[in-house]
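quick one before i forget lol
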Amino acid sequence: MASFREDRVMKRYPRMPALMVLTGAAILGAVYVVAWGRVEKYWKAGGDQTVDGLRKRVEAEGKTPGGVSAETWLAYADALMGAKRFAAASDAYKEAIALQPSRRDPKFQCGLALAQAGEANPFYDFLKELVYGDAKVAEDLFARPEARPYLKEDRFTSLAKEAKNQAMD
């Protein structure tokens, strides 16, 4: 028969091992989820996520019958944006848009890249097409701080008003 002291100790600490196991499982689960997301992204992207690695992947896929996929163009464009190579990034986004014209994210990212490239004419030409193709994306671009310097020009101000009108329709 257990003494009173042993009985009290058993009732006092039985949850501690269970709490330690649950805490450990939660921490391991969180690490697994974070790691799996990175591994899955790495596998989906085909491995190397550097600009050079993705450029090689674009070149390799370009030699295949199906050509370069939109996802590869997007990954390459994102890497170029990260490297602050905005003009090249806009070209890559345009390739992705050509393959999947209904996707809004590449259009938005392409507009940002053109705005950050600092060349007003290509940015204006892109926005002009975008206002009549996807006015909401154009309106969102005009709201970004990257586009504010361009709004000093009348042609951009006029285009921003047209984007707003088109987006309301």
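fyi Residues 142 and 148 are 7 Å apart (CA to CA).
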